[in-house]
């Protein structure tokens, strides 16, 4: 078990945490959520001892080992991959090195023999004989092929290093596991493997993630970081979000009888509890949900953007035709003779391992790149709005405040009108006077979304729009695209986002495309 007593932390006069007293118990998985800047990653660093709190202490049950997903991808460059994984259990790795040093002595003494025997005994207690097998199994599960296991870390690419560091954190069944964005840079198969691993993990897990599908799959509890405090809620992310929003809606609806409100909320708890899956984590969560009282569920104080794309006019039946598109960049053929027709109302998710291929297709459709061969044709009644993956050209070296920045893209120039759209994405009051060139990544994305809403286009193209967004903004964008009445093509690595928005999947492959009219989950199982 790991707990905190009166943890406080201040940065430059700003209180990030104030007297946080919280307990994380054995057998549970806690999803640490909160707005960008709330201090989720910082709190994990306090728990791990990487940084010191201003006041208070962290308590870990005696004898329990804590493991952390390391963020420095170059820290282990001089070590072999398999060795790097085993280093996740510091004491075991230390014993292995001590044993090797003793056995390599040319003048092996009786004292060395005694010491070696002690080390062998502790090595056996720590399951050291199975260490390499376990490390290799973790690497294989995450998609690191066996031929890489004996190579130096510096020879791996960035995504491969992330997987090795994740295997390092998982190695040796630590009693407490701290994971900060563990699904970043993982492919679909690796994420699925990690979900199953954590579902079977019987100790304590704290995880920070913007992947709602992942949080819903593995979490028994949500730890909500807000206004310097942390509060634990039973259930996964969906349960926390929907129950807190329902409680907020009922709190605002003063015309409804109190007993009716309680009944609606209780019905929601009952439905969610009954639908829990059969995994060990979900079964535990179901029992805890059944014990909830209405007083345990509180309205969320979180602010959500309002994302609503309203087309100015309805498109006709001819939307977009793509014929035999081919594009090679730097000697790599990214698009190979691809053809498809987009129909009115299609919500198409572009999937596939090659991110550059998807971005290239978006740029071609927006006439930012020329094709090597082939052609495409937009319907005459369509109007397009584009969200590029890289938006720096819209903001770098731009001295305008946000009102004047957004005004560039609007036919209506009145300040109140512009402020209304900025307010939708949480830039109100003084926030709307920020300079465009000092915004964070998430703030830039929200500005780009306000620009798209202003366009009133009936066809949207979005290339990884959830990057840099917090869970609140992702949820709002997700709902906005579900409700969008036009046609769209988008790419995203957010499983929940793709599953709930897309009604058609196009996978870009080296040989062309695979095109299926179905949901993402259905596509994953064919």
Question: Gist?
Answer:
It contains 18 helices and 18 strands. With 526 residues, it is of the alpha/beta class.
Which structural traits does this protein have?
single chain, 526 residues, alpha/beta, Rossmann fold, 6-stranded mixed sheet, 18 strands, 38% helix, globular
Structural class by SSE content: alpha/beta
Rg over CA atoms: 26 Å
Shape: globular
- The helix content is 25-40%
Sheet with the most strands: spatial strand order? 5-6-7-3-8-9
Structure annotation, total helices: 18
| Termini Cα gap | 42 Å
Strand content: 15-25%
Question: Main beta sheet: strand number and arrangement?
Answer: 6 strands, mixed
Oligomer: single chain
Q: From the coordinates shown, what is the CATH architecture of the domain at 320-524?
A: 3-Layer(aba) Sandwich
- CATH superfamily label of the domain at 320-524: P-loop containing nucleotide triphosphate hydrolases
Q: What's the average pLDDT?
A: 90
Low-confidence stretches: none
CATH topology of the domain at 320-524: Rossmann fold
Quantity of strands, as a count: 18
CATH class of the domain at 320-524: Alpha Beta
Explain what the structure shows.
This protein has 526 residues and is an alpha/beta fold. It has a domain at 320-524: P-loop containing nucleotide triphosphate hydrolases (Rossmann fold, 3-Layer(aba) Sandwich), CATH 3.40.50.300. 38% of the residues lie in helices and 22% in strands. The protein has 18 helices and 18 strands. The longest helix has 17 residues, at 258-274. The mean pLDDT is 90.
